[in-house]
Amino acid sequence: MASLIGEKLFEISGQGPPPTKDFFQLVITRTEVTWTSWTISLRRESKGAPPKQLKTTHCGFLQDKPFQNDVGSVFGQRILEYTLSLCRGDYDYLERLPDDIALRILSFLPLKDTALVAQVSHRFRQLCNSETFWEQTVRNRCADFNSEMEGLANAMGWRRTYFTFFHKSGTKEQ
């Protein structure tokens, strides 16, 4: 499973909390945590100031409470908790699966179960609602689908095609 993990594990950027207008970026790689900040100010002494950058190992981040507080105050508690779990080596391999592999796995599940999988995370909701997923569903599960319907499906959308022509309301499984 380690091959599913790229060098960059996570990256997020955004503006800090008011009243400052400073901009921040957090990058977590396999070995280190990098915090970059840009001071945004109209003051003359701040113009052209280079960004400040702090790099530390995962172990260093786990022990650095002020650094953790900065991450929490800028990006929120959920991102801080996720950062701490990555630094502890707790990777979510399912979230890291490439889309084509995740879609292939979804193709083996009954549609009723894919509705449950869509509730797991934002990413899986996007996958289960994607045109690619619904195209796979129509092509692989609908015996009455033929090549003449392909143009219609492309025009009106694969999900809508499925529910218009193939979904049997009231049946237990499709």
Which short descriptors sum up this protein?
about 170 residues, 10 helices, alpha+beta, about 15% strand, about 45% helix, four-stranded antiparallel β-sheet
Please render the helix and strand layout as text.
Elements: E1 8-15, E2 23-29, E3 32-38, E4 52-57, H1 58-63, H2 65-75, H3 77-87, H4 93-96, H5 99-106, H6 111-117, H7 122-128, H8 131-141, H9 150-156, H10 158-166
Antiparallel strand pairs: 1-2, 2-3, 3-4
Describe the structure.
With 174 residues, the chain is α+β, with helices and mostly antiparallel strands. 47% of the residues lie in helices and 16% in strands. It contains ten helices and four strands; from the N terminus they run ββββαααααααααα. The chain has a four-stranded antiparallel sheet with strand order 1-2-3-4. Strand 2 and strand 3 form a beta hairpin. Helix 2 packs across helix 3 and helix 9 crosses helix 10. It is elongated and about 70 Å long. The mean pLDDT is 89.
Strand order, largest beta sheet = 1-2-3-4
Give the total of beta strands.
4
Q: H/E series, N to C?
A: EEEEHHHHHHHHHH
Residue-averaged pLDDT? 89
Specify the helix fraction band. Answer: 40-55%
Number of helices: 10
Contiguous uncertain segments of 5+ residues: none
The general outline is: elongated
Instruction: Measure the end-to-end span.
Output: 32 Å
Report the major sheet: 4 strands, antiparallel
- The helix/strand class is alpha+beta
Global Rg: 23 Å
Q: Which percent band covers the strand fraction?
A: 15-25%
Oligomeric description of these chains? single chain
